[in-house]
Write a structure and sequence with these properties.
It is a single chain. The chain is mostly beta strands. It contains 2 helices and 10 strands; from the N terminus they run E-E-E-E-E-H-E-E-E-E-H-E.
């Protein structure tokens, strides 16, 4: 599958990154908080959320901060399962910039098999820790899997088969890592 990307300006051009061409700026249809950028897939329910937060502290490791951010975005009624997490390099940021990716799934506590109800959501998270700016940047690629709209036989995450929708999301996440650039650090009040 070939994904077309477009270079996208976030936060008035202070950040730029390649996003899929089929995603559009949600602020064109609803109000979005200033610290977030939200992009919706015009062909489905997938979305990409970029959020700038105050850098969380009080943790022994960055991995603990990554889990904190996951819990912060997860609906308290959902069961979360983390499948993988790793340290990554964001090539267009200074070498010492801590960055991490995580793959998790969120499962409704009371799932429904009704067509169109969410069976689970795949969450591919990127956390960039800007220590000098006292900020964390959290980027989530969220892929809802809705009953009747995907083939559960193609998914066996325990055995390394994430299915076509999450395989595509993984490509998107990798492209975000490769192309993410901060053009103007004054965005962080520095």
């Amino acid at each position: 599958m070939s994904i077309q990307f477009k270079n996208t300006s976030l936060y008035g051009g202070a950040i730029s990154v390649d996003l899929p061409a089929t995603f559009f700026d949600a602020s064109n249809i609803r109000q979005i908080p200033d610290h977030q950028e939200v992009y919706l897939n015009e062909d489905g329910y997938a979305n990409i959320v970029c959020e700038i937060t105050e850098r969380v502290t009080g943790f022994t490791t960055d991995a603990e901060a990554l889990h904190y951010h996951l819990e912060d975005i997860a609906d308290g009624n959902d069961g979360i399962r983390v499948w993988s997490e790793e340290s990554v390099t964001i090539p267009k940021l200074p070498n010492a910039t801590p960055a991490y990716t995580m793959f998790a799934t969120s499962h409704p506590v009371h799932p429904s098999s009704t067509k169109g109800s969410t069976a689970f959501t795949g969450i591919l998270m990127i956390m960039i820790r800007l220590v000098p700016q006292s900020s964390d940047i959290i980027i989530n690629v969220n892929i809802p899997h809705r009953a009747g709209e995907y083939d559960p036989k193609l998914i066996d995450i325990k055995n390394g088969r994430a299915g076509p929708m999450l395989d595509t999301a993984s490509i998107v996440c990798q492209r975000i890592v490769e192309t993410f650039v901060i053009n103007n650090y004054s965005l962080f009040g520095q």
